[in-house]
Design a protein that fits this description.
alpha+beta; 6-stranded antiparallel sheet; about 30% helix; about 40% strand
């Protein structure tokens, strides 16, 4: 497949990614409740955003790492679920690079690094949107199920 938006296969792949994202979003109560937004989805890629609120800050006056992980995991989930089949995490790890604080708007960009058969590897970079400073790096391993997510 090419990256040419005029290519019919590329257009269909992009449309499938959008349908998959819509199906996931409709049922994703956790992300909706936390105010996470999915701003972009394409085959193997997704962008998620979250504003850090007072209730997300820990005893060190920084965003609790669990919320940063959750944002990265959400971007990962939307990126690996762009091919029409329900896909889940096999495992994931995160490295926290810099703290974020109340009021920060974070953006997580998930990019597919490798997909073979039912397995995939995705990298997610979480940045503070105002400065572009990297907050965390996340790597997720996915496994596609036999269940169709969207057609």
């Amino acid at each position: 497949m090419t990256d040419n938006p005029e290519d019919p296969a590329a257009r269909e792949a992009a449309a499938l990614a959008e349908r998959c994202a819509a199906a996931m979003w409709a049922a994703d109560q956790a992300s909706q409740a936390l105010g996470i937004e999915i701003s972009d989805v394409s085959p193997g890629r997704a962008v998620a955003r979250l504003s850090v609120t007072a209730s997300m800050v820990n005893g060190h006056a920084i965003a609790h790492g669990g919320y940063v992980f959750l944002l990265a995991d959400t971007a990962f989930a939307f990126a690996c679920n762009t091919y029409g089949y329900a896909t889940v995490a096999q495992g994931a790890e995160i490295t926290f690079v810099a703290p974020s604080r109340q009021g920060d708007e974070l953006e997580a960009v998930a990019v597919e690094r490798q997909r073979s058969g039912r397995n995939g590897i995705y990298d997610v970079t979480v940045r503070r949107r105002a400065s572009g400073e990297v907050v965390a790096e996340f790597r997720g391993h996915s496994r596609a199920l036999s269940t169709r997510l969207a057609h």
